[in-house]
Amino acid sequence: MLVEDPHRTTRERPVGHPTLTRADREALLGFMVGMRTFEERGVALYKQGRTPGSFYDGHGQEAIPVGAAFAMGPDDVICSPLIRDLGAHLVRGTDLTEIIRHHLGRDNRLSRGREGNVHFGDPAKGIVAMVSMLPDMFVVAVGMAMAFRLRGERRVALTFFGDGATSPGAWHEAMNFAGLRKEPVVIVCENNGLAYSTPTSAQFAVSPADRAAAYGMPGVVVDGNDVEAMFAATHAARERALRGDGPTLIEARTMRMHGHGSHDDARYVDPAVLDAWRERDPIATYAARLQGDGVDVDALRAAVLDRLDAAVDAALATPLPDPASATDGLFATEEPGPLGRGDAPWSGFAGPGDAGGPGRPAGAGDAGTGR
Ligand SMILES: Cc1ncc(C[n+]2csc(CCOP(=O)(O)OP(=O)(O)O)c2C)c(N)n1
Ligand SMILES: [Mg+2]
């Protein structure tokens, strides 16, 4: 078998889940469905030749960015969502139409239509755009966390990267620095069994979570297909960071269900492995659970689809950027402004005594698109 089961050594699950209301659970499902629905449409638009560049999706990994971002407070930063992490953008409240405009290369607030790919962020929502060099945004996240600590600010940086990003030297430098200085950074490693076509068995002898101890921080293995487990582990890691106890590495075990990008048919992956993982689909399992609790999952899916259709229509009706503006914004001409506050839809941020969360944004329970 080319791809091992990344779950084979799973040994820890977080205990003591923080409280999730029914509306929280509906929001979690809505964001996951929003991510998948959007990405399925994104693949279709790519195959229709309407998307310049390429398209990447996180099919089967939705629980990781959604569960992790859901545990973040409004003043925390995400540095950065990568190619499997659209759900983090949705949770923070970045406008879906703007994201689609970005992918289609249309004029938009996030990237001004300068590229149709995954390199976008939303400073207004506390999201730093990614660069492709791996794992360089982890290094930046540690720097941001250091700034928060030195300024005495009560906030953390959340960073994402894959299993493949744990091999370059920068990863080890960032781990060492963060562990030594106890920087308030929450580190989510998405172990999806593959780095392009290389299985984890050909990448490392010691799993990322097991390596964490060598850098002076806990390494927690979490079922990356369980959105509530992801939420709980990230919540605990955030609390730890805010207490001044330093970083946590969360290794989220999952499987990359599609090719690296839409251009890759992943014929190097054993179909039997994918079949086994499909049984554990994070959305199907969570939807079944919520349906059992009386949630109208069909209505939720329909609402998400309606929003997506409207957003795609609006994006397709948006013109490409004016060619005369092609060189605008190539160089920074002024100091960047401060990052804004992201949406923090978990009900736990709405209560009295919190550091000032805005509470649940209107419609988060049924939006799924974070708008
Ligand atoms: C330093 C560096 N080397 C190579 C690449 C090319 N590259 C882009 S994604 C990728 C695989 C990443 O695998 P992983 O970190 O496991 O993330 P996944 O795609 O599985 O989510 C590679 C090798 C890169 N972006 N940066
Ligand atoms: Mg990977």
Helical proportion, percent range: 25-40%
CATH topology: Rossmann fold
User: What strand line-up does the widest sheet have?
Assistant: 1-2-3-7-6
| Main sheet properties | 5 strands, parallel
What would CATH call the architecture?
3-Layer(aba) Sandwich
Name the overall outline: globular
Query: Structural class, from secondary structure content?
Result: alpha/beta
| Span between termini | 42 Å
Number of helices: 12
Instruction: Give the assembly state of these chains.
Output: single chain
CATH class: Alpha Beta
Number of domains: 1
Bound ligands, named by name, code or SMILES = thiamine diphosphate, magnesium ion
> What would CATH call the homologous superfamily?
Thiamin diphosphate (ThDP)-binding fold, Pyr/PP domains
Average pLDDT number: 91
The SSE string, one letter per element, is HHEHHHEHEEEHEHEHHHH
Low-confidence stretches: 1-15, 352-371
| Rg value | 19 Å
Instruction: Determine the strand fraction and express it as a percent band.
Output: 5-15%
